[in-house]
């Protein structure tokens, strides 16, 4: 089984879930670093994946999405095109990357793409089962019971993951199990700066996707003059949002063809660079969480 980590989602969760009083000897907060290491140890212990990838944001706000919808994540911009990130988290991100590299855990990113797109591409390439660990509902669009592809959703914590499959999506949102991206396009998502169709909320979006099966078929019906199956006023609202609907799918749908570099995705049994790992453990006081993770990696190999 291949496990894909939405690493930014996880280290943000760790940062806000663990006090900043967790520091290195020099006083630098390492709450996100320690939290992420412990999360990975928990995941390895519970799921024993054969392959594991920590996906990263090479570009948190890709140009192709911003050109389609300029408001995309605009409210999270600190200045220029730099994401607003807490000052005490910023220096922890390079440490996270160094720790992952020293461990030998595959860390993948792709210029011009988000971590979600790396996940989408690796999921598309994989022939077997995939578990995606994230706190981002956008990745619900990748669930596929036939393989299976599941999302392990972190909203209730890493030790109480919600397993999201097609049945969960259908029950939660009242839509076909593979229809989350089209549903989200209609509904919109203020947290990502996606306006959605004005006047179309979750219930209307769900009824439209359920009735027509997909956004593509919905727009075909709209263009063809079909009236049956549209809630009152929905045709006018959709027609008014045609410009948005023509570009939104390219923003909402995660990429499946990001040009990723070749990498060994195998879960390491032992550190790739033990000396570097010892230096990092000593400098940032990471011995306890790293020992827990190394113990689980060894058990998985055994």
Automatic annotation (TrEMBL):
UniProt keyword Nuclease present: yes
All residue ranges annotated as the 5'-3' exonuclease domain in the record: 2-268
Keywords for this protein: DNA-binding, Exonuclease, Hydrolase, Nuclease
Species of provenance: Nonomuraea soli
Protein name: 5'-3' exonuclease
GO BP term, example: DNA replication, Okazaki fragment processing
Chain's role: 5'-3' exonuclease acting preferentially on double-stranded DNA.
An MF annotation (GO) of this entry: DNA binding
Kinase keyword on record: no
């Amino acid at each position: 089984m291949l496990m894909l980590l939405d690493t930014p989602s996880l280290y943000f969760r760790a940062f806000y879930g663990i006090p900043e009083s967790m520091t290195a000897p020099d006083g630098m907060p390492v709450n996100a670093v320690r939290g992420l290491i412990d999360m990975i140890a928990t995941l390895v212990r519970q799921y024993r994946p054969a392959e594991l990838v920590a996906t990263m944001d090479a570009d948190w706000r890709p140009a192709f999405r911003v050109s389609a919808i300029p408001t995309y994540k605009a409210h999270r911009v600190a200045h220029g095109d730099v994401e607003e990130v807490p000052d005490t988290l910023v220096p922890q991100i390079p440490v996270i990357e160094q720790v992952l590299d020293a461990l030998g855990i595959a860390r993948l990113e792709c210029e011009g793409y988000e971590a979600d797109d790396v996940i989408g591409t690796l999921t598309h390439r994989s022939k077997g089962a995939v578990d995606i660990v994230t706190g981002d509902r956008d990745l619900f669009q990748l669930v596929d019971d036939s393989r299976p592809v599941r999302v392990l959703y972190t909203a209730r914590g890493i030790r109480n993951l919600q397993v999201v499959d097609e049945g969960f999506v259908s029950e939660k949102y009242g839509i076909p199990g593979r229809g989350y991206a089209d549903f989200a396009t209609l509904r919109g998502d203020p947290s990502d700066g996606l306006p959605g169709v004005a006047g179309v909320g979750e219930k209307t979006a769900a009824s439209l996707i359920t009735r027509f099966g997909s956004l593509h078929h919905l727009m075909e019906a709209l263009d063809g003059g079909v009236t049956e199956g549209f809630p009152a006023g929905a045709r006018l609202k959709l027609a008014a949002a045609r410009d948005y609907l023509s570009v939104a799918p390219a923003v909402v749908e995660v990429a499946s063809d990001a040009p990723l570099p070749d990498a060994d995705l195998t879960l390491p049994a032992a550190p790739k660079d033990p000396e570097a790992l010892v230096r990092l453990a000593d400098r940032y006081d990471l011995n306890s969480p790293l020992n827990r993770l190394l113990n689980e990696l060894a058990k998985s190999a055994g």
